[in-house]
What we know:
This protein is mainly alpha-helical. The chain has helices at 7-14, 18-39, 46-56, 80-89, 95-121, 126-152, 157-180, and strands at 71-73, 76-78. A two-stranded antiparallel sheet has the order 1-2.
Amino acid sequence: MLPELSEENRRAIKGTTPKQAVKEVEKAVCEAVKEEKRGERRLITPEERAKLELKLHRLLVWVGVITPFEFELGGRKVPLHDIVWDLLAKDCLTEEEKEYVNKLIDKLQKHEKVNEEMLHSHELTEEEADAIFNETAGLLRAIVSLKSLVGRKDTCPVRERVNRRRLEEAKYWLSFLRQIT
């Protein structure tokens, strides 16, 4: 036998649809979970750690990931996204720029290795692990972009054409001078 409901409970039930009741229960559960997470630091499990490490070592982990807009190198913030974008927009790189890009790649790779080690061996919360994972994936994207940039822009086609043209003109004028003398 069901207990007798109060007038207040009857009014609340009368105007409620099953859909609304489910939504209210879901909302209450979400709020309870959020409250629980605020009070306690849940560390990632070894299985979650292994899953993140495997995801990080996938072939195309960097696809769809944005290069970090700012990144701290040597104690100062560097606009990494802008640097990579500007270098990719250039037709060719000077030797000085290539050297700079190679140094930048080395520094980014070292930082990426440190992040991997942190992900592997430190006690991390879910949020910390996700932040490290996303930063590392962004660094991998920057590294891949910069590596392809240095390899692709080894020779400058414009400069090469200008030099070839100058050489042809010099040969033409030498042959012309030989003919008239």
